[in-house]
Write a structure and sequence with these properties.
The chain is mainly α. It has 23 helices and two strands. The N and C termini lie far apart (65 Å).
């Protein structure tokens, strides 16, 4: 065989270098810039509706509040502008300082009592061994969220009245009657009942994140349960307790219905003072009081944030995958029985009182009758108010879900400069007390000459509920599998089609929960609505508030029962629909 290679022929052979492997071309800078520009444009389009609504309603309303505070009220004439006379009037009067102190004191009392009761409740629920009993406890604790706010306040009128349930029970043991109604005590008790779920929720969340191995290690080293609680459980659950205190204090100082109906004019808070000043058309002084209330809310939020940061330094550093197991706590059964009675008794008293045969508040009722339900449905304007509440709640739910979902997608799925500032701006309505925000919108309407009514209520309620929907949808989007969208786009689908076919089914349950939440908040809202409705365009809570200020028969008890039943039906339908949506997700290919 003849070797024909270059080496065999005696020539000098030079091996050719191997061909270089093809390099993947880097994307050109203009292409990357175009992608970033497209993503930024998409985010802005998604955020535009929420931002426009925030500026048009919230920002301009707060600006109107500041402008009116710089005026001097002239009875029967034109207000003087560009003056600090109203600020001097409010801050230079000892009466208004007593109102401010009363507001802060009630906030502190409610927060302290709710913190103790809420922590004990959260601890008992967390350590309940049987899931059935634990879920029942959660349902009872959070039942006051379904019970309409004004209905809850009215129930305490029935409980604490001179011939109410409490004094009747005390009379059986030879005590009383005790004067409880129209005192600070009545306001504090009613607010504790209403705000207890707000305290329990963040504490339970913190307790669930405590590393169970820490508790087990403490047991192995012979630590008592008290020492384990003092050195492990309490410090690690402190962030949840502080968050609950922050929310409770902010809601307590801005409450309006409880001091208005249970205080009887003797318990003056900033919220009731604003309402009284509006009744005398002294809008500048009312604006000053609203801004003072806002400053109190902001200062308290800052204080709690500083406290939270100090505890965060000693945090365990993340969420554990080994939560502590329920251990059971001795003696907590008695506490839970007392708690169940405290949470459920107001609703039971309202239902029984709605069937009283007499027109005055007495316990127990002499006999039962349905006359007050008949009287309710024969009242002028009640059906109109009912249909108006349904319409407002439905529109607010739809708008809140649409705007909140779009904003959440922009904030979670799209990166752009200034996203943190936009998110903070969208959450700013949560910080402002509702009574101050409602009055600010009222001032904006007066300033622009626009008519108040249900349209204004829809806008105000939407601004107030969109932040909560954003929170729910952001959490759902963070858990959603984005690779499904990317795979669909790689296979030729448009981004919108990929989102609708892959991401939307994953976040549909959160959208449903957000819609139900927005509807219930809007349907039962009174603080935001009371300044924005005409006498012929009322909602059910506002109609009930007006009725309670003029009559004392059990008709509001019948209305409270109907409103609570409707809320239960809405929650039940939402739960069924949520179960249907989740089952549909499981059977999808």
């Amino acid at each position: 065989m003849v070797d024909t290679s270059a080496g065999s022929l005696g020539g000098t052979a030079t091996a050719e270098p191997p061909a270089p492997a093809p390099r993947t071309p880097r994307p050109k800078r203009p292409a990357r810039a175009a992608g970033r520009l497209r993503e930024r444009r998409t985010a802005l389009l998604l955020l535009a509706p929420s931002v426009v609504l925030l500026i048009a309603v919230f920002a301009f309303a707060m600006e109107s509040l500041v402008e009116y505070s710089l005026q001097k009220y002239q009875p029967g004439g034109v207000n003087t502008t560009g003056t600090l006379a109203s600020w001097t009037k409010v801050l230079g009067d000892s009466y208004y300082w007593s109102v401010i102190w009363q507001t802060v004191l009630i906030g502190l009392l409610v927060t302290a009592i709710t913190a103790v009761a809420g922590y004990l409740t959260a601890l008992a629920l967390h350590h309940t061994k049987r899931a059935g009993w634990r879920n029942t406890g959660y349902a009872v604790v959070f039942s006051s969220l379904i019970f309409s706010g004004i209905a809850s306040v009215y129930s305490w009128q029935l409980l604490l009245g001179q011939e109410g349930f409490v004094n009747s029970a005390l009379g059986l043991v030879g005590i009383g009657p005790v004067h409880l109604l129209y005192e600070r005590t009545a306001v504090v008790v009613a607010l504790v009942h209403t705000l207890l779920p707000v305290m329990v929720l963040p504490i339970v969340s913190s307790l669930r994140q405590i590393d169970g191995t820490l508790v087990e290690a403490a047991d192995d080293f012979g630590a008592s349960r008290l020492r384990t609680f003092r050195t492990i459980t309490l410090p690690l659950s402190a962030p949840g307790l502080i968050a609950g205190c922050q929310l409770t204090f902010a809601l307590a100082i801005s409450s309006f219905t409880a001091p208005s109906l249970l205080g009887g004019g003797r318990v003056a808070m900033l919220s009731t003072t604003i309402y009284s000043l509006v009744g005398t058309t002294d809008f500048p002084a009312a604006s000053v009081c609203a801004l003072v209330l806002l400053v109190l809310a902001l200062v308290s939020a800052g204080v709690f944030v500083l406290i939270q940061r100090r505890f965060a330094e000693a945090d365990q550093g993340g969420v554990t995958v080994t939560p502590s197991a329920p251990r059971g706590l001795r003696g907590m059964g008695v506490w839970m029985v007392v708690l169940y009675a405290f949470q459920l008794l107001p609703a039971v008293i309202v239902v029984i009182s709605s069937m009283s045969s007499v027109s005055y508040g007495v316990w127990p009722p002499p006999s039962l009758s349905t006359r007050w339900y008949t009287n309710l449905f024969h009242q002028d304007g009640v059906m109109h108010a009912f249909l108006g509440s349904l319409w407002i709640g439905a529109v607010v739910a739809v708008l809140a879900v649409l705007l909140g979902s779009a904003a959440a997608v922009a904030l979670v799925r799209h990166r752009f400069r200034g996203s943190g500032a936009v998110q903070s701006a969208l959450f700013s309505p949560v910080v402002v007390p509702k009574i101050a925000f409602g009055f600010a919108v009222f001032m904006l309407l007066a300033r622009t000459g626009m008519a108040s009514g249900r349209g204004a209520v829809v806008l105000a309620h939407t601004v107030a509920t969109v932040p909560f929907v954003i929170v729910l949808l952001s959490a759902a989007l963070a858990r959603a599998d984005r690779t499904l969208d990317q795979a669909a786009v790689d296979l030729g689908a448009r981004p919108l089609t990929a989102f609708l076919r892959s991401t939307l089914p994953q976040i549909a349950p959160a959208m449903l929960v957000g819609g139900v939440f927005a509807f219930l908040v809007s349907f039962n809202e009174i603080d935001l609505s009371i300044f924005l409705l005409n006498s012929d365009q009322q909602t059910l809570p506002v109609w009930m508030f007006s009725y309670l200020n003029n009559y004392q028969d059990p008709t509001p008890a019948a209305l409270s029962t109907v409103m609570t039943a409707l809320s239960v039906v809405v929650v039940g339908l939402g739960a069924l629909l949520l179960r249907f949506v989740q089952r549909g997700r499981r059977i999808l290919p």
